[in-house]
Specification:
Elements: H1 7-32, H2 42-55, H3 62-69, E1 72-80, E2 85-95, H4 97-103, H5 105-121, H6 128-134, H7 136-145, E3 148-161, E4 164-168, H8 171-177, H9 181-189, E5 193-196, E6 199-202, H10 207-215, H11 232-249, H12 254-292, H13 296-311, H14 314-326, H15 333-359, H16 362-370, H17 375-405, H18 417-428, H19 432-464
């Protein structure tokens, strides 16, 4: 048996096995090497935590900077994990800024609004920056009068590069270490009224006042996602898993694709039926005119229809049919899409069927007439069945084309499969995952339909024999 295998084939097999072995070794080694390369002392770990917390407040956020100065974290214990991580048992001391703001929120907003009105009267532009600057002294006084609080917390360091550690900060960890500073923004957002000169004033639409107060406690953007560790293979796998979860699993975003797929299949199915009926009707009218000279006026109308539909892009047709013709009379987007794609498909089906009818030997028509059938009976019983059998694979391919062309329905706001992918993209700001998912779903459906068409063609060829 081995003598029959050529030397060149053996070389290919050896190279293939070697490549598989190298890749498998890299993957196994990537996941096995997850120990930290350097051990840290409690003081070194404490410095990383302290430096990270001090860098969180925005430079102009006076309140947040003052809270950070009054915050300290002490590392009591260190435990080394299995993901290039170090788990820290810590004690923190900070001030309860969340309670201080909550208890004085009405006074803060009243004072901010008073300064806002005074600024307006003096002709000074009162935007969020001006509000923040004018309220700095009051807010700092409030921070300095806030009660101290302390407790225990577990923090984690990850080794992102050899000897380089990054503190993983969740929203909960930041809020705990900095005295509930993230809750300040939520508290201020609930304030929709103030008291000025003895009257209650609605400030629901005055965002500059709320934003000015919140900016005093604003933190620089930090990433709550777990830092990537390990080599490029581990990082790629981790990033892929995180992106997949964020784009599809989180908040059930995969439902956008499922619902969009249902809409796409509904549009394709209804438009396909409409296209078949319209296409056969146009084809029979044109063939009848060519063979008997009847329906001349209708034939000219059909020619105009075919010229317009086949001579313009389907997307332009969709925009004209919806925005110019149907939207003014209140026709829904879904029905507009079905009508557009049905009309478009009907033009191509008509030419496919017309070609099939004209390819049937004229002797079949003469044989039918000689048996006493009229023209309509001959077409129905002899010509059309033979033509349909001949053009069936082409019609199936037209259905596949229709499925792909329906992807432009999102231009008029139809929540189809493409729109589902774009919706996920707009929520996650990720381009790769949603668009690739849409493309793969289309590809799988087209492959299934193509397989069904090939099975149909084989059966038709078998029946011919």
């Amino acid at each position: 048996m081995l003598k029959k295998i050529s030397k060149k084939t053996l070389i290919y097999i050896f190279v293939f096995i070697a490549v598989i072995g190298v890749v498998a070794g890299l993957i196994v080694g990537s996941f096995a090497d997850m120990k930290v390369s350097k051990e840290l002392s409690a003081l070194e770990a404490e410095k990383i935590v302290t430096d990270t917390l001090e860098r969180l407040p925005k430079s102009v956020s006076a309140g947040a900077n003052e809270v950070a100065k009054k915050t300290s974290v002490k590392v009591n214990g260190i435990k080394y994990g299995e993901e290039k991580n170090i788990v820290l048992d810590c004690e923190y001391t900070t001030i309860d800024i969340a309670t201080a703001i909550n208890e004085n929120k009405q006074d803060i907003m009243n004072s901010a609004y008073s300064k806002y009105v005074e600024g307006k009267k003096s002709g000074t532009m009162q935007n969020a920056t001006k509000i923040r600057q004018s309220m700095t002294e009051e807010l700092l006084a409030l921070v300095n009068s806030a009660q101290q609080k302390s407790g225990k917390i577990t923090l984690t360091l990850y080794e992102v590069k050899k000897g380089e550690f990054v503190l993983h900060l969740s929203d909960e960890a930041v809020d705990t270490c900095l005295g509930g500073i993230l809750s300040v923004g939520q508290t201020i957002d609930t304030m929709n009224s103030v008291k000025y000169e003895g009257k209650v004033v609605d400030i629901t639409n005055n965002n500059s006042i709320r934003t000015g107060i919140k900016d005093s406690f604003k933190l620089v953007n930090y990433d709550t996602k777990k830092p990537e560790v390990g080599n490029f293979i581990v990082k790629w796998c981790s990033e892929f898993a995180d992106d997949f979860y964020r784009n599809f699993i989180e908040k059930d975003r995969w439902l956008y694709l499922v619902q969009g797929l249902g809409t796409t299949l509904a549009i394709t199915g209804l438009a396909g039926v409409m296209g078949m009926v319209l296409g056969f009707l146009v084809a029979i009218i044109r063939c009848t005119n060519e063979l008997t000279g009847k329906f001349k006026v209708i034939d000219k109308v059909c020619r105009v229809y075919l010229t317009l539909i086949r001579g313009t892009p389907v997307m332009v047709q969709l925009l004209i049919i919806y925005f110019v013709i149907l939207l003014p009379i209140g026709i829904p987007k879904f029905i507009s899409a079905v009508l557009c794609f049905g009309l478009n498909s009907g033009a191509y089906v008509a030419e496919i069927v017309r070609g099939g009818i004209m390819s049937v030997d004229r002797g079949q028509t003469e044989a039918g007439r000689s048996l006493g059938f009229n023209y309509a009976q001959t077409m129905v019983n002899f010509v059309v069945p033979q033509a349909f059998k001949a053009v069936l694979p082409a019609l199936a391919n037209e259905f596949i084309t229709l499925l792909k062309e329906s992807s432009v329905a999102f231009y008029i706001g139809v929540a189809d499969l493409t729109q589902g992918g774009l919706k996920i993209r707009s929520l996650t700001y990720s381009n790769f995952m949603p668009l690739i998912a849409v493309a793969l779903i289309y590809l799988v459906i087209v492959l299934i339909l193509t397989k069904l068409v090939s099975i149909l063609e084989r059966r038709l060829r078998r029946s011919e024999h």
